[in-house]
User: Fold this.
Amino acid sequence: MNNFVIIDGNSLTIEEVVKVARKGVKIKLSEQAKENIITSRKTVEKLIDKGQVIYGINTGFGKFSEVAISPKELEQLQKNLIYSDAVGAGDNFSIEVTRAIMLLRINALAKGHSGIRLETVETLINMLNSRVHPLIREQGSVGASGDLCPLAHMVLVMIGEGNAEYNGTIMNGKNAMEMAKIPIISLVAKEGLALINGTCAMTAVAALAVHDSYVLLKSADIVAALSIEALEGIVDAFDEKIHKVRPHKGQILSAKNLRNLLKESKLTTRQGEKRVQDAYALRCIPQIHGASRPAMEYVKAVVEIEINSATDNPLIFSEEKEVISGGNFHGQPVAIAMDTLGIAVAELADVSERRIERLLNPALNDLPAFLTPVAGINDGYMVAQYAAASLVSENKILAHPASVDSIPTCANQEDHVSFGTIGARKASQIIKHTQRVLATELVCAAQGADFKGKDKLGKGTATAYAVVRKKVDFLENDRILYLEIDDSQEIIKSGELLKEVEKVVGKIE
Assistant:
């Protein structure tokens, strides 16, 4: 049982999303979830038998909600919904995002407010567990009514249409299902709408982004600490007394992290020994990094709620025997959260690039110019800073909020949309850029530490140095650098840097 994540619609965590999406952990429905799904479906069938008019079950969709659909056309209505909504553009989502989308749709359906059949949910579970991954286009969602377009691409494979990846091969959906020995389904009343009306695409991207942003935030303190030593930074700025009199929690935690990482260092200085004050990129690390922490806490709280929410429409309330149309599909909570996350993470890259400049510019330090021992014939890390600057500048564009825009759709029936999926995708890209900038700083800081004396590093930074030096050697003469920075980025992204340092200094907050 421990090899499965149990899905009940209410208790899924971000870490479990990561396990299923990235590590291939399988899932099972709880018995209560099965009961809830069955009960909800029975409620829908009873209401249909009574001839009650219910949006999306025996009416058209959106502006066509006033059009009645005859009983014999209900199944065709659901299939047509999938066909018409599968109009995605651009590249496909990665397999890990696709798996997260499938998982979150299953979890939402498990709450028992969607009126879908149990066998339909189990089809999607079997696809996830057997690694049948629909090809889902990244672009096309306006974030209300939910993620109709990307989720329709997911459902195409369930009905033997569209395309999927299975065992590393791209094939049509019918073949993928046959090879995995999963029967394709025919959608009955309400099922097409239940499968696609919700925020699961934006929230899938968001959940993975939240996980990655926390790893990145903590790693940023580690990387910055190594830069402090390479630049013989002044540790007085991290004194606990300073931060207690401006008691922002994030600032206090970041300063504490730096103090712990720099314990036993013989490279740091005190105010007045070499300089009275450091530049802001060093002196204000707790204030800058710390400011991102409460923003990320807010984002995490939103995403934790959203991954356990019923976000389709209409919703079935079996105890009351009611079907109520509402707006839980609207992605505004996620949209604002993802815009916030993008800004919070972009700032980590901003200040990291400034530390790279201080490590490379001989006018700002006493290190060899561009960290090369033989200047002129060698450029060292000169152009690595150019690449970092390029990513920082691109982040500024990506950090423009998506949620402040709205283009009405569906003949003005859907007259305000969230663009939450765009916001989530942008935040995810900012995270990748920021990983790269910090990876560049990490190799530069390690190079600087070699010039200053790696044996003088602090307790935590010595470990950080050792981790990066397993993959990236000292730069004696110019060589191809991008693959080494790739390795450094993977050290940060995978959490290896954070994990190894925490073994030495304890938990990084």
Summary: The chain has a mean pLDDT of 95. The domain at 206-505 is CATH 1.20.200.10 (Fumarase C; Chain A, domain 2).
